[in-house]
Amino acid sequence: MKNTFFFLLILLFSACLTDGHAKANVSVFYDLKQNRDISGKIMDKKSKKSINKVKVKIKELGIETYTNINGEFIFLNIPPKKLTLVIEHAEYQSLELQFDKAENILGEIELTPNVLEIKEVLIVGVKGNKEGATSTIINRKAIEHLQASSLQEVLQFSPGNLVTNPNFTNTNQANIRQYNSDNLGSLGTSLVINGLTISNNANLQAINTATSGTGASFSTSSGGGADMRMITADNIESVEVIRGVPSVEYGDLNSGAVIVKTKAIRDPLQIKARFNPVLTQFWTGKGFDIGENRGTLYVDLDYTKSNDNETNKYRKYQRATGTIQYTNRFGKDKKWHNNSTLSFGYARDLYDMDPDFVEDSLKTNSTDKYLRFISNNTINFNKKFSRNLKYTIGVSYNLQKGYQQQYYTADITTESYALQNSTNEVPYLPSSYMSKMWVDGKPLNLSAKVSNQFYFLTGIFNHNIIAGLEWKMDANYGDGKTFTRPIRNTSGAAYRARAYKDIPALHQTSAYIQDRATGSFGNYELDVVAGVRFDAVQPFTRDYSLNALSPRINFALKTPHRFTIRGAYGITSKAPTLLYLYPENAYFDFYSLNYYASNPAERLALISTRVYNSQNVNLKLAKTQKYELGIDFSLDKENKKKLYITAYHERTKNGYSMSTTLESVRFANYPAYTVASQTPGQKPTLSSVVNNKTNMVSYYAPSNNIDRINKGIEFELDLGKIRVINTSFNLNGAYVNTKSVTNSPYILQQNIGGRPTTRVGVFAAGRGTEEERFVTTLRAIHHIPELRFIITLSAQTTWLDQNKYIGYDPRPIGYIPYNTTGSSPHIVYLTEHQRQAVDPINDADIYLNINEATYVKEKWKPLWLFNIKLTKEFRNGINFSFFANNFINNRPLEAGTRYPSIYEKRNIAFFFGSEISIKL
Questions:
Q1: Which of 853, 866, 848, 832 shows the shortest CA–CA distance to 895?
Q2: Phi and psi (nearest 5°) for 857?
Q3: 4 CB burial (10 A radius; 0-12, 13-18, 19+)
Q4: What is the pTM of this model?
Q5: Closest Cα partner for 35 from 44, 46, 43, 27?
Q6: Which has the higher per-residue pLDDT, 6 or 919?
């Protein structure tokens, strides 16, 4: 099936890119003689001047072009249908314009500049409809008014997302339609910048997957999505957050996608300075025309420094980024549009030692440097079966370094460096020593994507066809983990060096095809986007066979009664990262002999090392089924007051995690030696009698151990502007319910004092949490165009916030008998009668003592958060902005229902900041 699907796509490309004999068959779809050319001119509504490089797209047909230096555009051979123009430019408000099937010349079309002196300015996220998918679009003016210091803060415009203070202390990861962000949710969110997916698949910055999973003592986003702290918001032109069922063009995702376009226009030199109690940021950017027919170049630089808080100078974060973006059109008729981006960045997250507490204190440091090149191209062939050909080529290379330093004071212990099953003599360590560890990663991400677009008509329907192929490669050429001797050694689960460059690369090949069919019957308009995507993960290796077929459909029916009904269904899949595909081995060190004497010459320590391969070749793709139903209301004839309601249900199966499974439980056999005699000044003589010992060990291994359901209702209400007070009101919100449970048994060894260990408890799958929240955000936007002044007051109300633990049963479903022969463990299952007979005292080794509070649902009272933002533009090019979050400092001290004796300060802390920018 895989080869057939790719063959059909390649055959389709070949047929589309050649006119050949295809002309004879085109008349099956429409009469060529009735085609027309559509032309027009784009003007600035305020200055009445023509606008160059405006993107003009016919929505139903999917074809696009750009205006010339005179603001003119033209589409050739357009079928005689009622169609919609979508007009976009970074400096102007987007416009959708319908034109009749008889119109050829559209004349002058005026765009409204998105500046504060204009009566209508857009500074909130608005509902989008990218290829039919439910989304939120945030333009540059909204980002500037928000005063966002990173991309993460921009996402708060999505319904249901909470307002947070700027935070660079921890990794910032995306959160779409989920109660809280975590590795699984952020990993399933695709981040696309200028057409390139920013991959985190080759991030291996973890200390020890067998003992710590994806975590590390230093800052890392391994096993999850990209860290959004590294992406400045100041050079962003627009952001689209796709929450619904995405187009089949987007793959390797579960939750949704964040589509970012950076500035690529002529723009005056701008300098920004941003200050708040924990952050200092400077940014500058300029876009200029290189010369006639030579295109536009946009250059920007950013530097950000942040502390954990005002009084802690030992925890800090630094970021420096830069972008060079080139845009031009080539060819005699300017049919080839190219946008190429070269970006670079540096980020450092430092947690330094307090010099007053050196002993047992920890110092960590992580740095991430990247160099990224993206070339995004569109060629207007204007052939019957190839109107637009798009291709994107991307290369991203990172230098990631993690560092941990700790001064240990401990009992006398030893160290081993064995990498195989063996017993070796090892040295004793000093009682105090400095341990240093480095984790060196060099992820390389390559990608190439090509898609062909054309259209045809059948009856009342326009068909916009997109077919594409995609290839991605993620590899890591770093030196991996290295140590100073002695290495960190605090338990039997040992640390070993590992070279990442020995790990195979991750390859993904994909093919997709999609039809957007639009048509009218009577006063009704139907828009259906249906497609299918096929993904093959690791198709060039035999270790894994991971394939996914993902059908997706979005539809919208617009009625003459001022409402539209929407629906969607789709399957998405996310490939495992290299961390899950190729985890490191689990190493365990056991004392076969520990003979410590006061005289160093008389000491002898023997360590037996046991090594287990933690790779899970049965790993499956994480897949999400998405269902969605919505309705859009126009509350007035001018369509300025609107209400959007969307209900959704998303179930993710086989979510990735590092967990203990039956396959990662082992009985380790090793020899135990005794001393027969001791000669002074010499090492002891061992007895000829060697005993065998058995220890049960467990480690983390990659698994598909998470099943998750996200469901809820989102709404957006735009009440428009009340002219008398120059104030517009916008209300959005969401009810979010996230249920996340394990799908494999929970295994726990409990050693009871005075009793030999004979069995290990196995508890039922389905342990997890269910969390729900209902939050609304009301924004009142007061705008005085004459003063170029705008102020936003927002009230965020958390009406419902509660969570509960589910599936926690103290009684086991079975046990693993303790096996001294070292054979693989197996589960002895209990009948229901046997389960109920398990006694908490006599069977304490397999009975789980659970705190009674675990069964109590945590509920919180409604909570209000009030924020203010203001922006003032001066005519000399100087802008001033200010914001204050929780400006009334409402932080009630409240006890939860689970632990009523523990009080918690709710709400984010009072926080403020200012920004000044100058345009020269």
A1: 853
A2: -75, 130
A3: exposed
A4: 0.91
A5: 27
A6: 919
**What Cα–Cα distance (Å) separates residue 706 from each residue in 21, 640, 702, 765, 828?**
53, 43, 11, 10, 24
Integer Cα distance of 805 and 766 in angstroms: 10
The β-bridge relationship of strands 506-521 and 493-494 is unpaired
Report the pLDDT value the prediction gives residue 28, as an integer from 0 to 100.
40
DSSP 8-state secondary structure symbol assigned to residue 707: E
The CATH class, in words, for 2-131 is mainly beta
Say how far apart CA 750 and CA 747 lie, in whole Å. Answer: 10
Indicate the pairing of strand 105-111 with strand 36-44. parallel
Q: What share of the chain is helix, strand, coil (3-state, %, to 5)?
A: 10, 55, 40
CB 790 within 8 A of CB 145: yes
Q: Which two tokens stand for residue 261?
A: 């376009």
pLDDT tens-digit profile of 657-702?
999 999 999 999 999 999 999 899 999 999 998 999 988 899 999 9
H helix runs in 603-751, sequence order:
none
- For residue 467, what pLDDT is reported? 97
What's the CA gap between 908 and 876, in Å, rounded?
Answer: 36
Q: State the Cα torsion 651-653-659-661 to the nearest 10°.
A: 140
Separation of alpha carbons 579 and 704, rounded Å = 13
What is the rounded distance in angstroms from the CA atom of residue 534 to the CA atom of residue 543? 20
Judged on CB neighbours under 10 Å (0-12, 13-18, 19+), 618 is: exposed
Q: Are 440 and 482 in contact (CB under 8 A)?
A: yes
**Strands 878-885 and 863-873, bridge-based pairing:** antiparallel
Instruction: With beta carbons less than 8 A apart as the criterion, state whether 496 and 489 touch.
Output: no
What is the pLDDT averaged over residues 775-798? 94
830 in Cβ contact with 846 (< 8 Å): no
pLDDT tens by residue, 242-279: 999 999 999 999 999 999 999 988 889 999 999 999 99
Q: Is residue 47 packed enough to be buried (19+ CB in 10 Å), middle (13-18) or exposed (0-12)?
A: exposed
Q: Name the phi and psi angles at 835, rounded to 5.
A: -60, -50
Asked if 310 and 278 touch (Cβ cutoff 8 Å), the reply is yes
pLDDT at res. 719: 92
Dihedral angle, C-alpha 140, 142, 144, 148, nearest 10 °? -110
Mean pLDDT of 909-919: 95
What is the C-alpha end-to-end distance of the chain, expressed in Å? 59
For 198, the token pair is: 């920013």
* 146-919 shares the fold of 2-131: no
534's CB contacts (< 8 A; 6+ apart) are 2, 5, 6, 510, 511, 512, 547, 548, 549, 550
- Quote the tokens at residue 900: 């009523």
The continuous run of DSSP H or E covering 123 comes out as none
**678 three-class SS:** coil
State both tokens at 142.
């909204």
Report whether 816 contacts 823 (CB < 8 A): no
What are the residue boundaries of the structural domains of the chain, listed by start?
A: 2-131, 146-919
CA distance 588 to 632: 60
579 SS3 class: helix
C-alpha torsion 62→550→767→223, nearest 10: -70
Query: Which superfamily is assigned to 146-919 in CATH?
Result: TonB-dependent receptor, beta-barrel domain (2.40.170.20)
Which CA distances in Å does 218 have to 64, 170, 315, 404, 491? 46, 10, 11, 7, 20
Of the CA atoms within 13 Å of residue 20, those in its CB half-sphere come to: 9
The residue type at 745? P
